[in-house]
Amino acid sequence: MLGATGNHGPGRMPKRYDLVIVGTGTAARTVASRVRAAGRSVAVIDHRPFGGTCALRGCDPKKVLVGATAAVDDARRLAGQGVDGEVHIAWRALIARKRRFTDPVPERQLERFREQGVATFAGAARFTGRTEIAVGDEAFEGGHIVIAAGAEPVALGIPGAEHMLTSDAFLELDALPSRIVMVGGGYIAAEFSHVAARAGARVTILQRGERMLTTFDEDLVGWLMTRFEGLGIDVRTGATVERIDRTDRGFRVHATRRGEAFAVEGDLVVHAAGRAPALDALDLTSAGVAVSHGRLELNDYLQSISNANVYAAGDAAQKGPPLTPVASYDGDVVATNLLEGNRCKAEYLAVPSVAFTIPPIAAVGLDERSAKGAGLRFRVSCRNASDWYTARQAGEPTYGFKILIEERTDRILGAHVVGPHADEVINVFALAIRHGVTADELKRTCFAYPTGASDIPAML
Questions:
Q1: Could you tell me the CA-to-CA distances from 438 to 350, 381, 387, 427 in Å, in that order?
Q2: Residue 236 and residue 261: Cα distance in Å, rounded?
Q3: CA dist list (Å): 346 to 276, 314, 327, 359, 436
Q4: 3-state SS string over 193-208?
Q5: pLDDT value of position 99
Q6: pLDDT of residue 16
Q7: What is the bridge-based pairing of β-strands 250-257 and 260-266?
Q8: Bridge partner list, 260
Q9: Are 404 and 327 in contact (CB under 8 A)?
């Protein structure tokens, strides 16, 4: 019946629904809610606890850890300047607090689906035809099927890769080891290394590329790297991991850097080298769903180009940046197209991105290379602003920005900020880019003072 979870045994006729969704994260919930509200029958399937990556294994629990770590960092930066007393991260208590956020999510989400009349099924889904799905011995048929199964760590093909812990598992550690090696140099490595180092761990980052956080502006990342250095995080760029060995004391990570071999000892090795759409277990060949280089081939309506009955959204689609607001947006696009026919195309103008290091780094719109590649004529307003009041009152040595402004129209093409309040200030620039607010109009806006946003006119 609707709302039931479980296996109804072999030999049953397929359960038929107007829509079957694989996944229960942000994108899946958005699609399910709208389509069910329109009176159509909907089923969702997930082999993991209901709720998806953001609520259970990603953004939300990560921000709980970052929030506590930032509070400790605030106190340490202002020690002797009106703040007295040593503070530290109590890791076990912090993880317990994180679980108070995450533990209720699956049951709460299950109940929400039931209240909406969405049928729920637990298990690993696989296609058995163009509109057929199997979960164990259970068979399903959907008028349409939406793939919203999220993402998973990319396969690195490194001998000993089985010894690596995923970011999901890192968020469940009851105790924090003293020596941690991060393989990769993106969001996960940057954010988790800041948390772990401030909690007392000695962290080494092995990044294959020549710099960390390659999706952010190079100059601003350079300013942020001084915070990595100050925390004692050993960042080794241009380092290719060759293998991981288990030892009597933990693990030994073997790597090469500029032709020279070296090894790093650690109690824990974390996979921080990126995630890819979780598609392998779905047997997409049986559905005739085309995949290229590990990604679904989708049109602008987020519909499979080879099977019109199948759509995708969120990290599984990966048409836009792999961010929670994008998943929600994708869900709305897919729901609209399912309910009204293909009329809504996905576009990802001015989606802000933030790495929650301490301080955070943020970006929206074009960087210099992209703007030049598009043949645009623009001016750049850029400054290391560590001497501004915003940075000095917070005792934060890292603060800076780079804003790209088109010469002809005065519209903002891109904004890049690192430092206090960057994660909030970037939203103002996102609004300006999306709705065509010019630099002059922003300059003439009265922002509350003193706030991060009150620096915006001076940035322009």
A1: 14, 14, 27, 15
A2: 13
A3: 20, 11, 11, 32, 19
A4: HHHHHHCCCEEEEEEC
A5: 97
A6: 97
A7: antiparallel
A8: 257
A9: no
Long-range contact pairs involving 191-195 (C-beta distance under 8 Å, separation at least 24): 191/62, 191/66, 191/355, 191/356, 191/357, 192/167, 192/270, 192/272, 193/228, 193/231, 193/233, 194/66, 194/69, 194/227, 194/228, 194/231, 194/233, 194/357, 194/358, 195/65, 195/66, 195/69
CB 183 within 8 A of CB 156: yes
What is the pTM for the complete model shown?
A: 0.94
* Burial class of residue 121 in the structure, from the number of CB atoms within 10 Å of its CB (0-12 exposed, 13-18 middle, 19+ buried): buried
Query: In DSSP terms, which residues pair with 239 in a beta bridge?
Result: 257
> Distances in Å between the alpha carbon of 190 and those of 305, 357, 359, 361?
36, 6, 11, 10
* The predicted structure's pLDDT at residue 2: 36
Could you tell me how far CA 242 lies from the centroid of its own chain? 27
Amino acid identity, position 27: A
- Return the pLDDT at 11: 53
Q: How far is residue 186's CA from residue 210's CA, in Å, rounded to a whole number? A: 12
387 burial via Cβ count (<10 Å: 0-12, 13-18, 19+): exposed
The values of phi and psi at residue 268, to 5°, are -150, 135
d(CA 94, CA 80): 26
- Report whether 403 contacts 341 (CB < 8 A): no
Of the candidates 357, 360, 454, 433, the one whose C-alpha atom is nearest the C-alpha of residue 400 is: 360
* Residues in contact with 294: Cβ distance below 8 Å, sequence separation at least 6, in sequence order: 276, 277, 279
Q: What averages of pLDDT result for each successive group of 10 residues across the chain (460 residues)?
A: 40 88 98 98 97 95 97 95 93 97 97 98 97 96 97 95 96 97 97 98 97 97 97 98 97 96 98 95 97 96 98 95 94 98 96 98 97 97 98 97 98 98 98 97 97 97
327-363: burial string, b at 16+ Cβ within 10 Å, e else: bbbbbbbbbbbbbeebebebeeebbbbbbbbbbbbbb
Nearest 5°: CA angle at 370, between 277 and 391? Answer: 90
How many of the other CB atoms lie within 10 Å of CB of 382?
Answer: 17
